[in-house]
Design goal:
The protein is of the alpha+beta class. It contains 8 helices and 13 strands.
């Protein structure tokens, strides 16, 4: 009764989900009574100023726990002029990238520039970089501020974010998941590779970023469910009234390789053994 009352008293918010980059995280915003449609380009208010994004989740109601109030608002549907400014910002980003590369070289800093991003209102330029350790870039920031006459932020990122920004092809031959559709990185563990009977050779299960491949997470839940329904390797089972020992599992086919008393090994469907 108390749980039901708590759910009924929970406040609902109408939100839309907006994404700012191709495979970026989706953020919730107050639709501000605007009639918004999927894929519509909008101007929204964010903590760092105005931003240009695209509606990826249409208006819907969510529980208070799914958001962090107060919600920022969608200010307007993007106009042709907004679109023009957005494209101009992309051109400016390319130029700013080259200028920053030159400045890094001049200051002899051990850092690798990855990407440059203008906020929509051009109040800030963010330079993303990687480095093996801490970098004293105070003089670089001063130099860049004198060139661009706006706020400058240098943000150090990890190897997974680097791969997401630069893109590329994975070991499977397809475009990187993180650069095409993964909005957020999910934790990936070596246990997931073990559960899927994959080789634990780091070169086999690592992406181009050098970390465990994100796709290990995709089917881990399914493999876990299948494994829970299979007898473990080394356990005893009964097959056609004969005792046998499980020596291997085929999770995808849901079969077992068993060893009979005469040491013969056969592969049988899970439904044909008792355990």
């Amino acid at each position: 009764m108390e749980e039901t009352a708590a759910k009924n008293s929970s406040q609902l918010y109408t939100v839309v989900g907006v994404r700012f980059k191709r495979a970026g995280k989706i953020y919730y915003f107050d639709p501000n009574e605007l009639d918004l449609q999927l894929e519509q380009e909008v101007i929204v208010e964010t903590a760092r100023g105005l931003e240009y994004g695209k509606v990826k989740i249409g208006p819907k109601e969510v529980d208070q726990e799914a958001i962090t109030p107060p919600l920022k608002k969608v200010l307007r549907v993007a106009t042709p002029k907004d679109r023009e400014q957005y494209l101009e910002n992309q051109e400016k980003e390319a130029k700013a990238f080259q200028i920053c590369l030159e400045k890094i070289k001049q200051h002899k800093l051990e850092m690798k520039l990855i990407d440059v991003e203008y906020t929509f209102d051009r109040n800030k330029i963010i330079f993303y970089f990687t480095a093996d350790g801490r970098v004293d870039f105070r003089e670089l920031v001063k130099d860049l501020a004198s060139v661009f006459r706006t706020r400058i932020e240098l943000r150090q990122i990890g190897v997974r974010d680097e791969a997401k920004m630069l893109g590329g092809l994975g070991p499977c031959g397809r475009s990187l998941c993180c650069a095409t559709f993964l909005g957020e990185f999910a934790p990936v563990s070596i246990k997931m590779a073990k559960e899927q009977n994959l080789s634990l050779n780091p070169t086999k299960i690592s992406g181009i970023c050098g970390r465990l491949m994100c796709c290990l997470k995709f089917e881990s839940e399914s493999y876990r469910e299948i494994t829970n329904g299979l007898p473990a390797v080394g356990s005893n089972v009964v097959y056609q009234e004969q005792k046998a020992v499980v020596v291997d599992q085929n999770l995808l086919k849901e079969t077992l390789v068993i060893q009979l008393p005469n040491e013969e090994r056969i592969e049988v469907p899970l439904g044909e053994v008792d355990f």
